Amino acid sequence: MRFKNHKRWVTSIVCILTASVCFARIEMKPEGYFETPGFAFLVYHNDYLVGKRGGLQMFLHGKRVADAGEVVCLTAYGRYLDFNVKEIGRRIVDTERGLSIIQGKIKPMDIVYKVECSTDGDSVFITVKLDKPLDWNRINNFMLKLEIYPREYRYKTYRGGDATGYFAERYIGKTILVPFAKEISIATEDYLKAFTISTEDAVLSLIDGRGRGNINGFIVSASLPPNSPKQQFSMKITPKVNPSWRREPVIQVSQVGYHPAQRKMAVLELDSRTEDLDEVKLIYLDRDGTKKLVKSEKPGNWGALFNYTYYTFDFTDIKTPGQYYLIYGSQQVGPITISNDIYKETWHPTMDIFFPVQMCHVEVRQGEKIWHGACHLDDGLQAPPNTQHFDSYIQKAETETRFKANEHIPGLDWGGWHDAGDNDLPFGSICRTVLWMALAQEEFGTDRDMTSIRRKQRRVDLFQPDGKNDMLQQISFGMENLLSLYRAAGHICPGIIENNILDYIMVGDPVNITDGLIYDPSLKPDEKKEGRSGKFDDRWIFTNRNTGGQYQFAQVAAIVSRVFKGNDNKLAEECLKAAEDVWHYEQTHAPVHFRVTYQPIEDEYHSWEIAATAELFMTTGNVKYKNRLIELVPHIKAMPPSYFWQLSGFTLVRALEKIENIEFREIIVEKLKELKNLMKAEFDKSPYGVYFVFHVWGNNWDVLDLGARTYYFIKHFPEIFDEEYLYSTVNYNFGCHPASNHSYVSGVGVNSATVGYGFNRSEWTYIPGGVVSGASFLRPKFIEYRSGTWDWYETEYVIGGSAAYVFDILAVDYLLSKKEN
Q1: Could you tell me which of 76, 329, 339, 687 has the fewest CB atoms within 10 Å of its CB?
Q2: Residues facing residue 86 across a β-bridge
């Protein structure tokens, strides 16, 4: 039952700024969420609660301010039961009663409940209904909780019962902010962030959850009183909504700038209630500091998307090199540079800083700064059979190696990059990273030398040249890691990762995660002897064979063998032999398919086999690879254009010239025409002209990866594919994307992602050159980029996306440089 008589409460007209600014009416939408301009409340439209991105969620004046609302239970023996141990049913929308309903079950306690959400126009009511009374002999606390996002409320006030205070920017040791109350008021001094939470039949409390982990927020909970026989309780949320509020316009444009010869299109993201349009003004900044208006016109209406209306401003006709500003209303962006050399250096921070900083097994220094020490020198232990790791690595019943459970596998203490901030070495991600580095070197021939790598000393120095090509050194470093486990296991494995959750979530210098000494079970936990210790902190190595992962490795190793031929023949020969041996094994053994973190699964079209076979044919010229490709033609013919784009198509167009088979070429050309139609449909979904599919994470890495693949379609079939496809990819990455106008490359561009989810994330800082995933879509219609360090689905770095970015920039610079000649 909801609050008594709440529908008969008199609706108050509360003025916030002036007599004309009053509460707006909240309505339940057909999709089961609640909304009025400036406010939205979602009911399990998103389910990624581990990232504080799901369950009950609240938006206030354009910001997601509260999230991860759910029913939780604290058992009598201290176990906290949340989304991890629950079953959540499908949302039921009861339009007649105005209810949005979720049914759940806390499995360990066999507690079945419903969460019913409703509104009276001013507030949202959340009522929890139990199917039977609670067994208080087994339960310490049963509550409905909602987490307030700390960054939006730092230094804002709270008041509840006899307690008052302000929200600290960081956790400072005070956990209980409001011990108990019937009403808690939040940020009453800020009309854009103010709301109250109240209850009639429960007890409210407010705590700072960051003491249990930085990802947590300020937690408001409504709890049943201990030993209560009640089977329902409620929480009421009353936001202060200002109907005159309009979201500030966002001018979305490349924060790096443009080449004179490319298309230049700015996108305006405006509040959907915008009625009067201003003109967009383009201002030229002269050498003496004077500003000149060079273009002014009203933007063109592209249309509605997400929760906004989009407009475009085309300034392709402006080709004069220099610096410019774009102005719309009170908003200004810039300086925007137009230059023939605009892309010459933008990839440098990624190769000069980000990738060296991500290197495992070495100390990384930059002048007086030590980025991190030589970490994980005790890699690694054979993961025990039948292990389901919390980060989705899987060890099946057999190890498929000669090593026993938790036995040290030698030779794995060199090479590889930490992926994101997790400090693991996922071999699928390393393969993708090496792929784009090796292809970039093969295609564009970089010769930059800014990094010193000394293997004997396990030391890397940034901005200290050592006379060696940096790109080749990074490719070698990644390949050494892949080959080391191939040497030990005879096949490519899923990867290496921490063996416990506390080490996995550690932030700061990764040298502190393990002691660097090989685990010896015969020693006591605190005993050290001859390079070994009894401390069980060495990372696990997951070793099962997966056919998709084997072909992925063969593809990459074949490319690397070409790149290193004549430079490091020993590495080139080992890569080629490993690629051919893996390919031959997969050809003569039954395939194995299972889902495991970061490794691909082979599909029904043989996409990964095709890619590996084509690369081996281009590397060796061996007719057996050509013959196998011809045998696979029926699968290529049946392959949907999306698979062709995302997987093997870019490899096949490079192999065409060597295959010299008319039928094969005709099938590829026909597939390319299908792909062009798919691309047009995809690019027309938004004003940005890029791949526009969102999952939980932002889509920037997908955009960059597909942009790199598209380069080869443009190069080999310019009559079918337009270069603008690739230019749009780069513009998107540099700031012409939804939700904000940040460059997604940390430190690159005049407004960039200077908060990143890297190993230094607890300091709210970034790693220059790291590439984040970007704006995230929240069902049913919301897009955001919060620039929050713990929002890893928006600000996380990954090595594969960063390598694809480097390739894209080199490709764009190459294409535009050709126009100049």
Answers
A1: 76
A2: 106
